[in-house]
Amino acid sequence: MSDITMIHAPQKRVPFAQEAAGALTILALGAVGYFLYPDDLAFLTRLIGIAFLVLSLDLVTGYCGVATLGHAAQFGVGAYAAGIACIRGVTDPVALLGVGLVAGTIMGLISGALITRFRGLPQLVLSIAVGQLVAGLANKLSWLTGGSDGLSGIEPGKVFGVFGFDMYSRTGYLFSLAVLVITFVVLQRFVRSPFGLMCRGIKDDDLRAKMIGVSIYPRLVAMYGVAGAVAGIGGALTAISTGVVGLDSVSFERSAEVLVMLVLGGAGHLWGALAGTVIFMIFEHVVAAANPFHWMTMVGLLLILIVVFAPRGLIAPVMSLWTKMTRKGKAA
Amino acid sequence: MTKMSRPLLAMAIMGAMTGAASADVIKVGVIGTMSGPYSLFGKNFKMGIDAWVAENGNKVGNHTVEFVYRDEESPNPAKSKALAQELLVKEKVQYLAGVYFTPNAMAIAPLLEESKTPLIVMNAATSAIVEKSPYIVRTSFTMWQNTVPAAKVAFKNSAKKVAIAVSDYGPGIDAEAAFKKTFEGEGGAIVEAVRIPLATTDFSPIMQRIKDSGADTIFTFLPSGPPTLGFVKAYLDNGLKVAGVKLMSTGDVVTEPDLPNIGDAGIGILSTYHYSVSHDSKENAAFLAQLKKGGASVDEVTMTSVAAYDGARLIYKMIEATDGKRDPAKAVDAVKDMKWVSPRGPVSIDPATRHIRQNVYLRSVAKVDGKLINKEEQTFADQPDWALSKQ
User: Fold this and answer.
1) ipTM higher than 0.85?
2) pLDDT tens column, B332-343
3) Residues contacting residue B228 through CB under 8 Å, at least 6 positions apart
4) Residue B43: its chain A contacts at CB < 8 A?
5) CATH (one of 3.40.1190.20, 3.40.50.1010, 3.40.50.10490, 3.40.50.2300) for B144-273+360-383
6) Per-residue pLDDT tens for A123-134?
7) Using the beta-carbon criterion (under 8 Å), do A49 and B78 form an inter-chain contact?
8) Mapping DSSP to helix (H, G, I), strand (E, B) and coil, where does residue B96 land?
């Protein structure tokens, strides 16, 4: 654990160096996707949408230690809110993002208030219950959400009145990428803020945190609100770029899938969340295209291999290698 | 850099797409449930298409037709849309086909006009899909199409009080509405309407409710699989059959692969559907023989293979009419009004709705030569989609 705190301790030397590095890395990767795979932008846009949800889950699971299998609720509420707003006349994409953000935050605060009251198994069960409740509502309120037919007919306007969404997904991709960069930089700042570090402390030892006078519950709820905002943005982005919101966006499978991605990449690191999403989704995409009939077996195999050889996620070995290298550099 | 490259890229892609017209290979993207709980139906898409290709060759004129498959897996519109975009942009398909779930079809629909691509829907059964784009043609069925005859049969069989029990999702609600409207229109009464959550496995309380309502007939729709078995078992175990309460359903409840699991107790269950594997015609016999030749087992044939077989026929006709050029309006015009004899019986494409008109059969589960089948008893000829056609 000491490794992690060292990495996340504020560095004084160059202000905003880490943020700039993060933004540039994502932009570079994004450019690679844009120029080398111009035919796969629709898939990459979907990937970015999911990445928001995994980042959001990382905030509560990786940074606060809250076990949840109902996190798709925040994503789905954001997506539905943006979709409904768009159909009712708010077509500006940036405004729709705002709608998703607000809806996600509210949903996050509600589920946080319920879920973080407990620890351990009751917490997990409650998170599933909240997720199922939202999924049930999305199905029942079919006059509002389209029920199992999905909410279709979402036609967002142009970004800043210039760039329209088309079937090549260029606008959708660049728009999503830009939002991801901004969100990621803000989150990088956020998890190293006193509040973020305190959440980390609560995760490591909540009793000790209590002893030094921290009230845990409101902090966890607040963190849930922030996570809800991130997930809500992802939901809104997906709704905008896809034009349809279905029950899958609030489903249990979605919640479980993103947990798998997070574990794969490494919980407790923003980069881990991103890496997990990218690796899982690309792997799934490639094998599903190569063999549409038996690809799930391959995905299962990948997961078993990861759990056996890198139980703390793929990011852990990379991080330890990194610290070793920097330490050696200092010693020399 | 980007300012220059973007229009260039767009032109390159557009060029490649229109260039496909003169090329020899015409690709057809098929999106279906190839894995997961619904994989049987996706597999049937491929079986049906393979049967058509085996009979008619992979060439239309001097154009070679190639089918590219993608897995929609579950109702996941975002994924399906991305798959369709990938097929259009990367694989440069000229036709899209397949689609098992309604929300997925809804997600793909907005792409069709921009990319000038016809979509042949081979399953998704919500009526409104064909209204989402003028380039959509459907060769499957709709809930309204199959349910309206069921209500008529129920009334004719002197049912007075009917209890409706459907799964609580789109198609179930469609079935409930169609049955209610038709049955009440004929002069019958609906005494109970239960919507059952999709995950339900214990149907005893529902059977009790139906018993208490005093209904003489139950109409039900559930997606085929474990729930249908549970429902039929609960109907038998709670003594409703013995008490003389009849069970009517659409064919989804008694698909042929499920019949052995329902067992002999299911004999006599009535259903209305557009295709029975046991349909007695030379076209169906030839179709089943072709499927067998392709390595498929007759026990896993479902309605989606017939829809895919007929869908492939439409695609061949479209390619022939446009001579391999990307011209969706002409392609769709070529198949409007088309009439042919499908393995399911005589069918035609309704020019007004672009949905298939077909016979709907009243069947009852029967044992013939030691095998449970859906025996056709009555034919409702040339049924339109009752929700779209105002007749």
Assistant:
1) no
2) 999 998 999 999
3) B222, B252, B253, B254, B258, B262
4) 293
5) 3.40.50.2300
6) 999 999 999 999
7) yes
8) strand
